Amino acid sequence: MSKILVIAEHDAGQLKLATLSAMGFAQQVCAQTSGSYDVLILGEGISDAAESLRAYGAASVMVADSPALKEPLADKYAFVIDDVARAQKATMVVGAASTFSKDILPRAAALLDAGMISDVIEVRAEGDDFVFKRVLYAGNVIATVKLEGALKFLTVRPAAFAPPSKTDELSPATPVAVDAGKLPSQIKFVGREAKVAGRPDSTEARVVVSGGRAIKNGEDFERLIGGLADVLGGAVGSSRALVDSGITPNSLQVGQTGKVVAPELYIAAGISGAIQHMAGMKDTKVIVAINKDSEAPIFEVADYGLVADVYQAVPELIGKLKK
Amino acid sequence: MKILVPLKRVTDPDTKIRIKPDGSAVDLDGVKFAVNPFDAIALEEALRIRENVGEADIVVVSVGGEECIEQLRAGLAMGAERALLVKTSDDLDSLAIAKILAAIYHREKPDFVLMGKQAIDDDSNQAGQMLSALLGIGQATFVSKLELLENNTKARCGRETDAGIETVAVTLPAIITTDLRLNEPRYVSLPGIMKAKKKPLEEISLADLGVTVTTRTNILHLEPPPKRKAGVRVKTVDELVDKLKNEAKVI
Q1: From the CA of A84, how many Å to the nearest CA of chain B?
Q2: Pairing outcome for strands A129-136 and A187-192
Q3: Where in chain A is the domain with CATH 3.40.50.620?
Q4: What is the pLDDT of residues B128-170, one digit of tens each?
Q5: Taking the domain A2-182, which CATH number applies?
Q6: pTM, 2 dp
């Protein structure tokens, strides 16, 4: 019988939507086996986020609310997850595949001597055990894997799992006692760069507009890529080339080493389509490529390809969409 | 100061990956190998720290068969002093690798470990975090800026997170995993290659190290991702808008 612990993620108290995908995964596993899942949320001042987790059929929403957990520091968070997973006798600990989970979950897994699979896109019960599919080699290989052990750690790709169905009955919220004095303190939070306000996160947006090498400077990026994203109510993204040349910040990079996005619409403007970039966007529902070079690899994955200079096509597109 | 830098032998990042027809493994026939690019960034950072601090003993370590010597020699040619090869023919997962690296850590007692945030073959992004948990020390992952503080007892690290750059100060010893933007690794020079031939490279068995590991991840089958169905070329912006509105219905 599965007993799953889902680790929720939030941004200063605002629940990350990817958490719902991890809960959707848990619900899928529970439907295939008899089992239940709990959600653990850690932080400070997180009662609203915790409240919003109660409507999805979890056996409980466990709330570790403490000033000591204000920032998601791996040593402290892994310590609490270790404690809760033991107390719950969890058989699986699951988080969405994000930098938050990737930082913290492997640490907690090793504390519990548990194996881990990253970037799961499919799960199937097989007898008493499970078979998972995950992506590797920058998305060029899908592996079917088994993971031995009574406790398994997983990160799941948000795009691969739908949010769980809502239930009328609310899950009980239970506080998790945190003894701040016992938490490790090898890592101290110093600061976080201010977020650019106004546009949605590319991992959560319905539309993502990304710019590549064809964009010559930051102003043009804002005018063309930002402008197109804004008329579509979407997020902006970037290829590695623009980050490397300092035109866009690191946090915009889409790809194997950046963010993995799977929106309904992805517009790649002036992006050639290196495999490392495509690893981050090819699960998109509809891909549009605009590129001067008709041979660019991005056209091989695009549903709609327009061979054109982004400096001409994008302003025209913005104009037409504004009408 | 001593810095330990694990190097993984991986398929060259520019190689087109082919899967064997029976789906049992990646076809490595005729494929070029390289030091995992993130590990090369870790080694470059160690070399720069040595240049700043004045002295540092940089030890590179790899886990695998004899073929990993190629990557260890590349690390020595970049400037590491010494190389260790933990010999095994088993295909190990991240936790097993972390256990082996923990044993190496206890043997070498470095001031800290610099390693890539993920290997570009299995893309797991786990080994560094697991290693720091096993050692009970701090970690800073996905680091794109690194500065040693307070007489090299702490490291101030800029971490690349989904929400942007987060800065943490981690007490040393610690495990620091490197992201793409930390630096650009130097090219190996000819004198470097000549020198590397004379540098010590020690081979260690798992038995010598006193570690028994089992791998819990079993790969049953590999397949290529589903192909996207061929798209269409549109000739004008008008046609594109029409298709997105009336055919794909996404705007």
Answers
A1: 17
A2: unpaired
A3: 2-182
A4: 999 999 999 999 999 999 999 999 999 999 999 988 899 999 9
A5: 3.40.50.620
A6: 0.94
